[in-house]
Amino acid sequence: xxxxxxxxxxxxxxxxxxxxxxxxxxxxxxxxxxxxxxxxxxxxxxxxxxxxxxxxxxxxxxxxxxxxxxxxxxxxxxxxxxxxxxxxxxxxxxxxxxxxxxxxxxxxxxxxxxxxxxxxxxxxxxxxxxxxxxxxxxxxxxxxxxxxxxxxxxxxxxxxxxxxxxxxxxxxxxxxxxxxxxxxxxxxxxxxxxxxxxxxxxxxxxxxxxxxxxxxxxxxxxxxxxxxxxxxx
Amino acid sequence: xxxxxxxxxxxxxxxxxxxxxxxxxxxxxxxxxxxxxxxxxxxxxxxxxxxxxxxxxxxxxxxxxxxxxxxxxxxxxxxxxxxxxxxxxxxxxxxxxxxxxxxxxxxxxxxxxxxxxxxxxxxxxxxxxxxxxxxxxxxxxxxxxxxxxxxxxxxxxxxxxxxxxxxxxxxxxxxxxxxxxxxxxxxxxxxxxxxxxxxxxxxxxxxxxxxxxxxxxxxxxxxxxxxxxxxxxxxx
Lengths: 233, 236
Known about the structure:
The structure holds two protein chains of two kinds. Chain A contains nine helices and no strands. By secondary structure, chain A is mainly alpha-helical. The N and C termini of chain A lie far apart (70 Å). Chain B is mostly helical. In chain B, helix 1 (17-57) runs antiparallel to helix 2, helix 1 packs antiparallel against helix 6 (141-171) and helix 1 (17-57) packs across helix 8 (198-235).
C-alpha cells in the first residue's frame, strides 16, 4: 500500500528533518545578523574619506568575495586554528564564514545604495546644518534602504542556501540529516526532494517578506510624468 | 608524501616553502580540471539561460511554465542539495553519471537559471521602436532576433554574464563534495595525506583569489569600455 508506506516514511523522517531544520534556522539567523552588521560597517567604511579606513574594508570585500564560502569554511575550520592555536566550534566557524562571505557581497550593496542617494540631498542637509547623525537617519538611510532592499533579500536567500555547507563540518542541519537518513534507509530521491522543497518554501517566503518590506519602505515620490498626467486632456 | 606533519611544518614554521613547492603541481593539476569544468558549465549555462529567457519571453505554452519552475528550483535550493540529488538519486533510476559530468551539468543548470534573468533584462532593454521598425520593414522573425534584437541586447549584459561565470568558477569547489578532484578536491586530498591543512588550503584559497580577482579586473575594463561607447551612441 502506497499510502501506508507514505505514512510510515513521514513518521520516520518528520522528527529528524524537523530537528535538522532547527539547526539550519540557527545557522541562518546568526549568518543574517553577522552579514548585516558586517555589511553596514564595511560598506560605509568603503565610502570613508580616509584611506586607512577604506583600504582594510576593500581587502575584506575582495578576500571574502574572491573564494567560495565552502573553501572559506574549510579554511577557517581546519587551517586557521593552526595559526591562532584555538579551535572553533563548528557553529562559530559557520557563523563567521557565512556572515562574512555574504557580508562582503552585501557591503557592496550598502556602498552602492548610499552612493545612489543624490549628492544634492547630502549637500542640502549640510547647508541647513543638520547634525551628521540626523542626516544619516532622516536623509541618507530612508533613501538608501529602498534601493538596497531587493538585493538584500536576494542575499538573505543566498545565506539560506549557503547554510547547507555546514553539513560538511558536522552540524546536523537539514542537508546533514537527509544525508544520514539516506545512508541508513536509502529513499534518496524522496529525502532530497523533501528537503529541496523545504528550502524552496523557506526561500520563497523570504522573497515574499522582502516584497512586503519593499512596499512598506517605498515612499511614493512625485515622478516627472505625474504633473502632466494630472492635466485633463 | 606521507611525511609526519603537525601542521606547523618543520622547525615549527607555519609556512613551509619546500612543502608548498611540493604540493603546487597537484594543485595546478586540479586547477586545470576546475577551469575545464568552468568552461563547459559556462557553455551550458549561456545556452540554457538564453533558451529559458526566450521560452519565457515568447510565452511558449508548456515550455514557459517549465522554464519558470526550473528557474525557481535552481535559484531557491542549495547548490549542495542539487548536486546530491543529481549524483545520489539518479543512480536509483539506473542513470550513472560521473562526478565531474554531474558537476558540469548541475553548475550549468544552476548558473543558467540566473543568466536567464540577465538575458531577459537585455532583451527588455531593446526599445519598442526597434521592434516596430523591424515589423515595418517586414523583416522575418528570425532576422529580427539575429540582426536587430540580439546585437543590441547582448553588449550591455556581457560584463554581467562574465560576472556569473566568475561566480561559477568559485562554485566549482562544491563539486569536490561528490568526489571530483578539482582544485579544492586536490587541496583536501593533499592535506589529508600529510595531516597538514594550512599550506594546501591556503594555497588553494590564494589560487582561487588570484584567478577571480584577475577576471573581475578584466570585466571592469570591458564594462568601462562599454559605457564609453554607449556614451558616444547617445551623443549621436
